[in-house]
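Hmm, what's this shape?
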Amino acid sequence: MNALDVQGLVKRFGGFTALAGVQFHVPAGSITGLVGPNGAGKSTAFATIAGFHTPEAGQVRLFGRDVTGQPPWTLHASGLARTFQIPRLFAGLSVLENLMAAAPPQSGERLPAPWFARGRIAREEAALRAQAMAVLERLNLSRHADAPGTALSGGQKKLVELGRTLMSGARLVLLDEPAAGVNRTLLRDIAATIRALNERDGISFLLIEHDLELVAELCPLVHCMAEGRVIASGSMAAVRADPAVAEAYLGMAVA
């Protein structure tokens, strides 16, 4: 079974067609790349898959189930999470609290539990705090647990976003340019974290990335988009060698 099947997605904004019948798949348990020049439609595809846009045509299947047009919160509950090119942390929360906020709903979030189940709520919160601290240890961010999320570097914030996907119980994560604006040293940590979440926790990934060397390192399967369509699929080496990809990148991929 595939983690994700995208079949014939069409999305228009006014008279502009951003997605013109996009088709690709993400095998369950894989790290799959989505590449292409600026304006190819990659971010629109992400937003449509994640429920931020409703397609005019086509289908999105998550682990075999049709989820086309479902809102983001429903998809999140179904095991789909996404990150953003510019990380979006809760500014008023600590790093630890940012992770805790990503967990599935707790007893204390439902009435009348706060008045009649305080002991259970306290135990759940303690367990959640311990889980979040364990995730921060894996990310090498435990020393920042009590710091505000805004105090972290851009690369560290991306690690926190990865940690939040783990806290959420996501089975498929859409990663939007994890390498953007990140120094090479921290990028190695991010790549290692993605690989560990995939291999140890069984999380599937679809990542948009312009760093083709990172894509080649992480992704056995790569889909390349241009002008709202997928124009090539295969290994990074095969995609680079495709004449349609060379034309889309104006020679950059071949060079």
